[in-house]
Amino acid sequence: MKILITGANGMLAKEVREKFAEGNELTLTDVKDLDITNEKNVFEFITNLKPEWIINCAAFTAVDKAEECYDLADKINGDGPTNLAKAAKAAGSKLVHISTDYVFGGDLSLDKDYKEDDPKKPVTVYGKTKLHGEEGITKNLDEYYIFRTAWLYGIGGNNFVKTMTKLGTTHDEINVVCDQHGSPTYAKDLTEIIYQAINKKIPFGIYNATNEGYTTWYDFTKEILAEQNIKCKVNPVTTEQYIEMMKVTQAKRPYNSQMSKEKLKSVGINVPEWKDGLKRYLEEAKQNEE
Ligand SMILES: NC(=O)c1ccc[n+]([C@@H]2O[C@H](COP(=O)([O-])OP(=O)(O)OC[C@H]3O[C@@H](n4cnc5c(N)ncnc54)[C@H](O)[C@@H]3O)[C@@H](O)[C@H]2O)c1
Known about the structure:
Layout (H helix, E strand, L loop, with lengths): L1 E5 L4 H10 L4 E5 L9 H11 L3 E4 L6 H4 L3 H22 L2 E7 L24 H16 L3 E6 L2 E2 L6 H11 L2 E5 L3 E2 L2 E2 H14 L4 E4 L6 E2 H11 L5 E5 L1 H8 L15 H5 L7 H16 L1
Parallel strand pairs: 1-2, 1-3, 3-4, 4-5, 5-10, 6-9, 7-12
Antiparallel strand pairs: 8-11
Helix pairs in contact: 1-7, 2-4, 4-5
Bound molecules: nicotinamide-adenine-dinucleotide.
């Protein structure tokens, strides 16, 4: 298959490139080669190339920074996917796009999780711009998959697991937020979901796509350290306490990021547990060090 991967230097893209390398003709672009905010260039590039699939891994992912740069974030997360969808329609291409739990309000009670069609209520600039991107696709294209993920970590990027491993080995105790709930997601597992979706030709549409099971950043950290036998005391703190202690200003974080994977599973996609994903990530990270 002829596949165009945009944002090809990013964390998720690195996994996607590896997974799809065999047996496919890949075209890899990042902002320097194809800026997805440039409507004219995107249209020309895609209608010339005519890929069967476009996998869009490009995004403005700095959630806190986005609060001060609405226009840029909206261009990349909103206009960019819209441009790709319009060009895909003209070229006869299908589109895979990655969205986020931040399109929801994040204030659902914890006995519930978000279903794909639940009302959208983004409260951050990042969330609003990512919702704009989703709408740009659904309005302009029929043949797409939008996978909403969360708490993503992968070998090829700076991520929470790396940060906590480093803090755990250099500190006797650390404070970690215990009142945000969601699903840590290994980029390799999200890539496998994308791969299976394309190969099994599951129905087009929007799917929640994280690892299975729910936890908090606090419990996730305890698991990260325990798996590596790192002795460090982990103190649970509330988001409010954390902001006060660290003297940081940050975009509002969702209290509840829990997203149901029933839709994905109902079309025959396997969704591994987050603890299982973490184990495999740590094994791979260790092998890369050796
Ligand atoms: N990291 C997370 O925790 C998380 C959570 C939920 C959803 N997501 C989504 O998953 C996807 C992948 O995230 P990631 O962490 O791999 O991202 P990343 O930040 O590692 O990579 C993004 C890539 O996009 C490129 N890019 C930026 N602007 C561009 C432009 N105008 N044109 C072309 N390329 C451009 C960057 O150069 C970079 O290589 C994104 O859509 C993100 O919104 C991520």
